[in-house]
Amino acid sequence: MALPPLNDTITAIATAPGTGAIGVIRLSGPESFGIAEQLFSPKNRKPLSPGSVHYGSLHDDAGVIDEAIVLSFKAPHSYTAQDVIELQTHGGPAVLRRVLELTQKCGARLAKPGEFTMRAFLNGRIDLVQAESVLEMVNAQSESARRNAAHGLSKALTEQLDLIQSDITRVYGNIQAVFDYPDEGVEESDFQMPLKRALGRIDQLLATAKAGQIAQKGARLALVGKPNAGKSSLLNALLGYQRSIVSNTPGTTRDYLEAPLTINNIPITAIDTAGIRETEDAIEASGVSATKNIAAHADLSLYLLDASQEPSSEDFEVIDSLEPGRSLLVLSKADLPQVWQHDFARPLYPVSATEGQGLEDLKTAISEKLLGDVGSSELWLSNERHAQTLKQTRDLVEQAIHAPDDLAALDLEEVLRALAEITGRGDIAEETLEHIFANFCVGK
Ligand SMILES: Nc1nc2c(ncn2[C@@H]2O[C@H](COP(=O)(O)OP(=O)(O)OP(=O)(O)O)[C@@H](O)[C@H]2O)c(=O)[nH]1
Ligand SMILES: [Mg+2]
User: Fold this and answer.
1) Ligand in closest contact with the CA of 247
2) pTM to 2 decimals?
3) What separation in Å is there between the alpha carbon of 230 and the centre of ligand 2?
4) pLDDT digit string (tens) for 127-159?
5) Ligand 1 closest atom vs CA 272
6) Helix (H, G, I), strand (E, B) or coil at 14
7) Which residues surround ligand 2, an ion (CB under 5 A)?
8) Residues paired with residue 27 on neighbouring β-strands, in sequence order
9) What single-letter DSSP state applies at residue 372?
């Protein structure tokens, strides 16, 4: 599959499907102005001039379709760096479809997903990291995801990558010089130091990858424990409303149940599960097996231990099987006297779902566990492609540090290629571009 052509005129509805107050049809390419002039009659009868707003009506042979406002942008001062027209109409699906049809009739081609942004990238107006940040911004559901996307758009990540690249380029150049003048040798300060600095920068970025992914995609939080431990009550307390049935009959929750919530700006899917126990009941048994599966795949599990009940051997067994990095121990019903003591060699968070005590501390612990110690850092690596490529880059830099000059040079060539692949400044496979832009919506 080849990339779509760059020099024809594309059209798409840029606003979300459904009914809205305003809808936007966007055109990009050499015929944009010509097409708009065929369809649009400005009230003041003046020709479209970039930088000004025109009010008037859109019409076909049969008459007026709708009132419209037209924005026009001349190349290269536009989103795509081509001539761009935005037609704003009322946001009804019928009017938008009709205008879209007419732009096609006048010669525009229906845009592919992300094609406007792809043009902006291929025309050199933005780099690939910025293009991907556009997608992140459109999809951002949480404040942290939005903040990350804004950093990407403002080139904060590109600037970090540039710093890494400049150290690598410098060392690569120094090695080349030694090939030409072998007697000189590469000084420590021209080899080890810049490479170690680059490695430090890469590691700093990679340390934020998990937090970035969670900000982008959200996290799955499983509430697990024995029957009656207070899982459904804790879910309801975190949500602030009654979502899950609570009763003092052990085994109340038999199937798992998901509910969305936000904790310290992190989008979270909380999952209430069936209490873990050996059971003869086939339905409950299948719920218990689902619970174990959910806990194994969740980003974080809260294991609840009832303050008013001695933990059982089953509790200890499950706790032993939990990864400390992906679980928190919760002392539930902390308003009741605690009838047992045990040192788990890790914190136990006391919480009362009925009284509300400990909930805020638990939320803080949840967000710290999910984000690691990078919660306060400015820039997170939120894109999986960037993280994967940067991981490979890291290994190559590490290898180069310990390699003789000729092999180090080969590693560093690879590093420079990988960095260019992230920003899209080097040769980049068409399939990679297709894959990236296929995730966009049409009109972006
Ligand atoms: N005093 C007190 N009682 C609680 C608290 N949380 C839950 N309970 C009580 O403990 C019982 C069990 O609560 P649930 O939330 O249904 O427990 P569960 O873990 O979901 O139980 P299953 O669904 O059966 O696995 C109910 O009678 C709750 O009212 C709490 O914080 N304090
Ligand atoms: Mg329950």
Assistant:
1) 1
2) 0.80
3) 7
4) 999 999 999 999 888 888 898 899 999 999 999
5) 20
6) coil
7) 232, 252-253
8) 11, 85
9) G
